[in-house]
Write a structure and sequence with these properties.
Ribosomal Protein S5, domain 2; 4-diphosphocytidyl-2-C-methyl-D-erythritol kinase; 25% strand; 2 domains; binds cytidine-5'-monophosphate; globular
């Protein structure tokens, strides 16, 4: 049996810098991976059995309703085997779904990346083949594959295919909050008022302190946040609750929402999460350091 952690993908900054002729958006993003995520467990099944997927965990039912047979995990496994010219392995997969579905933190993409990692334990695929396979499964899957394999922060550009690994960030605490409303990524992209924003400001070789990271982040944005707040006003309530907390150093939305994050000094995140759970029992609240 092997277990693979599929971390949330959090966009600390997300600038939308253009749009390709095929409609996909060009972006420039600082992406990090907290110790908050799903887990994919693979066990051997009887020889000849087709791969199977069982869902467990807090968001299993939601995922079952939206993805049914077409789950990205089985598609990723099938695509990896096809690319390597090998039959699909007899694996019983269990996905412990702890991340909310359609929530801007790449849960489905990270699950697919974990399936690629499980497949890779048995297959040989060149790094370029692996990256193009990941991109064919979704624009966020290449970044999430790096998250699964290394957990390191990344600068992500293009539509998600250009990845630059960054030095580890200073120690910090992260709290993720989702108000329980799924958000459609294509709908947010469609309703953007501008698609020609400037790229991220220059990144230093390394952020020496949390203060320098926060100062740099204050010169950046999530260009999808305003459109997402219009379509999902609960995001505004989440951002207000996070911003008002004394331990919050920065609060912002991730991806196309509705999940928002707060950054805190290391060790402050658990208390902030407890306070938010007490005040808003309907919200999903998770806390942890970065990987
Ligand atoms: O690649 P993925 O299937 O995750 O993308 C879902 C949808 O989000 C796309 O069909 C597209 O409408 C939109 N999208 C985009 N630009 C990106 C990523 C996604 O317009 N860079």
């Amino acid at each position: 049996m092997t277990a693979c952690f599929a971390p949330a993908k959090v966009n600390l900054a997300l600038h939308i810098t253009g749009q390709r002729a095929d409609g996909y958006h060009l972006l420039d993003s600082l992406v990090v991976f907290p110790r908050i995520g799903d887990t994919l467990i693979a066990s051997a099944a009887p020889a000849g059995a087709a791969p199977s997927l069982t869902l467990t965990g807090r968001f299993a039912a939601e995922l079952g309703e939206t993805a049914a047979q077409d789950n990205l995990v089985l598609r990723a496994l099938g695509a990896a085997c096809a690319a390597a010219g090998r039959p699909e392995p007899s694996l019983a997969l269990t996905l412990d779904k702890q991340l909310p579905v359609a929530s801007g933190i790449g849960g489905g993409s990270s699950d697919a990346a974990a399936a690629l990692k499980v497949a890779l334990d048995d297959l040989e695929l060149a790094p370029e083949a692996l990256q193009s396979l990941a991109l064919s499964l979704g624009a966020d899957v290449p970044a999430c594959l790096e998250g699964v394999l290394t957990g390191r922060p990344l600068r992500m550009s293009g539509i998600g295919e250009t990845l630059t690994p960054l030095s580890p960030l200073p120690d910090l605490g992260m709290v993720l909050v989702n108000p329980g409303k799924p958000v459609s990524t294509p709908a947010i992209f469609r309703s953007l008022s501008r698609r020609d924003n400037p790229p991220l400001p220059d990144l230093p070789d390394r952020f020496e302190t949390l203060e320098t990271l926060i100062d740099w982040l204050k010169g950046t944005r999530n260009d999808m946040q305003a459109a997402a707040e219009t379509l999902c006003p609960e995001i505004t309530s989440v951002l207000q609750a996070l911003s008002e907390a004394p331990s919050t150093r920065l609060a912002r939305m991730s991806g196309s929402g509705a999940t928002c994050f707060a950054l805190t000094a290391p060790g402050d995140e658990e208390q902030l999460a407890q306070d938010l759970r007490a005040a808003h029992p309907d919200w999903w609240v998770a806390a942890g350091p970065l990987l």
